[in-house]
Write a structure and sequence with these properties.
alpha+beta, five-stranded antiparallel sheet, 14 strands, about 20% strand, binds adenosine-5'-diphosphate
Length: about 450
């Protein structure tokens, strides 16, 4: 049974059930018909006995029968002495006399009878047995007809139930076949664009197909993202690799003077450094995307995080004649992974130096505000064009100046992922010509929990 399809199993169970119900119904009908027939015989025998009793009298030791009892409709009447000798009527079968209870008897010819005996007592004369009996043929015929009908109808009913059940099951399972076909064609052709798109009744299978289609939507989107990511990543890596190869070839050629070779090595070093940053970011992104990054939660003063970031950009900022200010209203306690959060803030601060105004100002801030902890970076650079704003957090998105500066468009994506892992959000505001402001907002609840946990 386990090897059969659900369709076949449903059909078999359905057919068995119908056969069982039909058998039960036929049995009930048969037995109630028999009971009704018995009641009918009992009543007929009772009323005939009553008629016969009224017609039989004993006068001067002689039996006086008023009418010919053989004329009574369908019932035979016979009279016997107490010793069993026939006085009136016929003997058709041997059956000991018993008062009051209807019994069945079989004649030698095989004919069945229902029998009712009544004992008649007469004062001063011998008693007499009145025997009324009626042919049980109708009941027997009814039983035989019933059996014949059952033998004909039951198999027909079972076949009908089987065929009908199979058709119903096939119709009900048609969507399953469609789902299977779609899944198979996707496996065969790896075409994730196919959908089941079931129409009709909004039943369980419709819901299943919707879930399946939603899953395919997500799979398609995630494959597409992965494909784009891989192609963007290889593209980003190809440029520095090509430059490194070209510089190395040049340095190795006879054309290069000693000074050119040193210059080429410097360029190779710079590009290899950029590649290293890119590879590290790619690795961090894929790990975070795959949920493989575990945060080292600790209680941290965000003012320290801000100061660490400010220190790290100082040299770069000085090289562009920029000033760095750390505006911290500390201590600002928060539960976070200090290394990762510092990395996120550093990405924002490095961008401020990279894209800020030459000789401009960078402000790094940390403060608690309205139940939230804030870390931010502000600059007074040229700002971000409104049409670029919706894209700056996308993987590999780069503005024009980034391409000149050797960026790869992964810095802000990483910031957003790190902050999300902390249960927070990043907000960006910018005004062209006036500067940009990036804010990391972290929920304060974690910090409060940490403080509570610290108290004895
Ligand atoms: P990258 O800096 O490597 O290009 P990011 O993801 O860090 O990548 O930044 C994406 C883009 O957002 C940058 O290319 C740049 O155009 C823009 N951007 C980010 N920060 C600033 C900023 N402080 N001022 C102006 N533009 C910025």
């Amino acid at each position: 049974m386990k090897r059969l399809s659900i369709k076949a199993r449903v059909t078999i169970w359905y057919t068995l059930l119908v056969a069982l119900i039909a058998l039960l119904a036929a049995g009930t009908l048969f037995f109630s018909a028999r009971r009704m027939m018995r009641n009918y015989y009992q009543e007929t025998l009772d009323s005939t006995t009553q008629l016969a009793l009224d017609d039989i009298r004993m006068e001067d030791g002689e039996l006086d029968i008023d009418r010919d009892l053989d004329d009574l409709p369908s019932v035979r009447v016979a009279l016997f002495t107490e010793a069993g000798d026939l006085i009136y009527g016929q003997v058709r079968f041997e059956l000991p006399f018993a008062e009051g209870e209807m019994r069945s008897a079989t004649e030698r010819s095989g004919e069945e009878w229902y029998v009712l005996d009544t004992r008649m007592e007469f004062d001063g004369a011998q008693n007499v047995w009145l025997r009324c009996y009626i042919s049980a043929d109708t009941a027997m015929n009814l039983g035989a007809i019933g059996l014949e009908l059952a033998a004909l109808i039951l198999p027909a009913l079972v076949i009908l139930a089987g065929v009908g059940g199979y058709c119903i099951a096939r119709r009900a399972f048609r969507p399953v076949a469609r789902i299977t076909r779609t899944a198979e064609s996707i496996i065969d052709g790896t075409d994730l664009k196919k959908r089941i798109a079931l129409k009709g009744a909004r039943d369980e299978l419709y819901r299943l197909s919707r879930v399946f289609d939603d899953m395919l939507d997500r799979l398609e989107r995630s494959f597409e993202r992965e494909r784009r990511f891989t192609s963007d990543a290889s593209h980003e890596l190809r440029t520095p690799v090509a430059a490194i190869l070209a510089q190395a070839d040049f340095a190795l050629s006879d054309l290069a003077a000693e000074a050119d070779r040193v210059e080429a090595l410097r360029d190779i070093r710079l590009r290899a450094g950029q590649m290293s940053t890119l590879i590290n970011r790619l690795l961090a992104l894929t790990r975070m995307d795959a949920g493989q990054t575990r945060l080292e939660w600790e209680r941290v003063d965000l003012a320290d995080v801000a100061e660490a970031a400010a220190m790290q950009i100082e040299d770069g900022a000085a090289a562009r004649g920029m000033t760095v200010e750390c505006a911290c209203e500390g201590p600002v306690w928060a539960m976070c992974d200090q290394t990762m959060l510092t990395q996120a803030l550093l990405n924002l601060a490095e961008n401020a130096v990279k894209y800020g105004r030459e000789g401009g100002h960078v402000r790094i801030l940390a403060r608690a505000q309205a139940g939230e902890n804030i870390l931010g970076v502000e600059d007074d650079g040229p700002g971000i064009a409104p049409e670029a704003m919706p894209h700056i957090f996308e993987h590999f998105y780069q503005g024009d100046r980034s391409r000149q500066a050797g960026g790869a468009g992964l810095g802000l994506s990483l910031v957003r992922l790190i902050v999300r892992l902390h249960g927070g959000r990043v907000e960006a505001e910018s005004e062209v010509g006036r500067g940009s402001r990036f804010i990391i907002v972290l929920p304060q609840q974690a910090a409060m929990d940490a403080q509570a946990a610290e108290k004895p």
